[in-house]
Amino acid sequence: MRFRAKISDAGCLAHFSRAVATVAKLAKACALRLTAERLVFVAGARGAAGGARLWCEVRQGNVFDEFQMEGAAAEKNEIYLEVTPENLSRALKTAQNAKAVKIKLTNKHCPCLTVAVELPSLSSTSRVVTHDIPVGIIPRKLWNDFSEPSVPDFDVSIYLPALKTMKSVVERMKNLSNSIVIEANLNGEMNLKIETDLVCVTTHFKDLGNPPWGSQKSSQERDLETMAEARIDIKRLLQLLAGQQVNPTKALCNIASKRIVHFILLHEDVSLQYFIPALV
Questions:
Q1: Does the keyword Cell inner membrane apply (predicted)?
Q2: Does residue 193 form part of some domain?
C-alpha cells in the first residue's frame, strides 16, 4: 500500500488547502478515500456528525504535479484512511509560500500522512518543514460504509443566492430558533423561515433559477409555484455557510420535502456535497 503526491503550483496548493480547510470546519474526523483519479473526504457515513453527511471530492489531475498510489487490494486499487482534517489543514497552512509540497503515506511508529513543505531559502539549500499526521487504516471489510451517498428523489432543485448574503441572514436567525425551514419552488423562489410561538420571520429570494437537470421531471408533476420544504438544524446550515472556503462557481440545493436538504458546491476540480436531514 503506497501513496505519494506533489503540488508545485501555488494556485493549485491554495485551492487544495481551501478544500481541506472547509472539510475541517464541517467534520472533526473523516475518512480519506484515495483512488487513482481523486481524493474524497467522507464524514458522517456511519451516523456521526449529528446525522449530517459530507462528501468532498478533489479530482487530482489538474491539482497535483505527481500522484502515485497503490492500493491494498489488487481487485480494487483504493486506500481508505481515518484522518483528522484539522491536522492536515494546519500542515497546509504552513505552505502558503512553499516552492512545493509533498504528501506521502509513511509508517513512523504508526501510519502517518507525512506532509513535507519545501520553503524558499536565501541559500542554495532548501528548507523543508515536515509534518507527520497520524492516520488509521480502514480495513477492506468496512469500505462499503464510505461509498458515495445516494441522492434521494427530490422535489425541487434550486440555485442558492450569494452564500455571503445567505450566511448573514442565517446568522441573524440563529438567535431566534434552533431550527430553520428552507422552502423553494420550480419558479426560482426560495424562502428561509423561522417559526416559533413568539415570532415568524421569513426572508424571500427570487429569480434564483432552477437547474434544468433537477426540474425536468418534477416540473411535469408539480405546479411551478408549489413550495417544497424541510426544517433542519440551523447550526448545521450555518456551519456549512461559515466554513466553506472553496468559493464555488455554482451552489445549489435539492429539497426532498420533510426528508433532507442536499447542498452541492462546485468549483473547478473540487465538488462538495452536504446532506442535512430534516427534523421531525
A1: no
A2: yes
